Each structure stands twice: as structure tokens, then as C-alpha cells.
């Protein structure tokens, strides 16, 4: 038998949820430990708060403030115009012009 210290506040918050699931806190902890064994690590991602990449092929992401930056609706193949109205056929042309100071 082992002893585990659990924050009283979180224990109070999760107990009703576990009750609805028909699980005791001890059973939930045992399930968690078995999942660690099966996954050879924590069974979910443990990350610092920050950008979440969506891997949608468009570079869309969710920023640290929870805002979706969705680039899927942008047609990257259409011509690009700068603030002076000069047209570029693609991002590479624009980048080159910016590097050359045009």
C-alpha cells in the first residue's frame, strides 16, 4: 500500500466527476498508472503554454491566447501586391524584392 498526496482542491473538483463515472479516486489513479505503463510515458501531451500547430498544411495555429490563426482560406497562389500596388507572382518574388530594398 502506497500513500499519495493530492491537493484538496483538485480532489474536491474531480470527486463528483469520478463518482459520475463510477470510479473511486484510487481506481482513477490506478488507471492512470496503468496507462503510463502501456504508453511507456505520460498518456497525454505535457507542454508549456504556447503555440499549437494545427498541421493542416496551411500553417494555421492556435496562439497562446487561444486565438485561431487560420490560413486555410488564403489563396497563396494568387498574385501578391505590396502597399505601393506593385504585383508579385509569388512570395519568393516579394521576399527577393524586400531583400533588395525595392
Give a short synopsis of this structure.
The chain has helices at residues 8-21, 25-39, 91-100, and strands at residues 52-53, 61-62, 68-69, 80-81, 87-88. With 102 residues, it is α+β, with helices and mostly antiparallel strands.
- Sheet with the most strands: spatial strand order: 1-2-3
Structural class: alpha+beta
- Label the overall shape: elongated
- Counting DSSP E segments of at least 2 residues, the number of strands comes to 5
Report the uncertain regions.
none
Which H/E pattern describes the elements? HHEEEEEH
The largest pleated sheet is described as: 3 strands, antiparallel
- How would you state the average pLDDT, rounded? 79
Helical run tally: 3
For the termini, the CA-CA separation is 73 Å
Give me some keywords for this one.
3-stranded antiparallel β-sheet, 102 residues, 3 helices, two-stranded antiparallel ribbon
How do the helices and strands line up, and which of them pair or pack?
Layout: H1 8-21, H2 25-39, E1 52-53, E2 61-62, E3 68-69, E4 80-81, E5 87-88, H3 91-100
Antiparallel strand pairs: 1-2, 2-3, 4-5
Structure description:
With 102 residues, the chain is of the alpha+beta class. It has a domain at 52-100. Helix content is 38%, strand content 10%. It is built from three helices and five strands. The chain has helices at 8-21, 25-39, 91-100; strands spanning 52-53, 61-62, 68-69, 80-81, 87-88. The longest helix is centred in the first third of the chain and has 15 residues, at 25-39.
Amino acid at each position: 500500500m502506497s500513500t499519495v498526496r493530492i491537493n484538496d482542491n483538485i480532489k474536491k473538483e474531480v470527486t463528483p466527476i469520478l463518482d459520475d463515472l463510477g470510479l473511486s479516486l484510487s481506481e482513477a489513479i490506478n488507471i492512470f498508472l496503468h496507462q503510463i505503463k502501456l504508453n511507456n510515458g505520460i498518456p497525454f501531451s505535457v507542454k508549456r503554454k504556447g503555440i499549437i500547430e494545427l498541421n493542416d498544411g496551411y500553417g494555421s495555429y492556435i496562439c497562446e491566447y487561444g486565438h485561431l490563426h487560420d490560413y486555410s482560406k488564403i489563396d497563396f497562389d494568387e498574385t501578391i501586391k505590396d502597399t505601393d500596388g506593385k504585383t508579385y507572382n509569388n512570395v519568393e518574388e516579394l521576399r527577393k524584392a524586400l531583400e533588395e530594398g525595392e
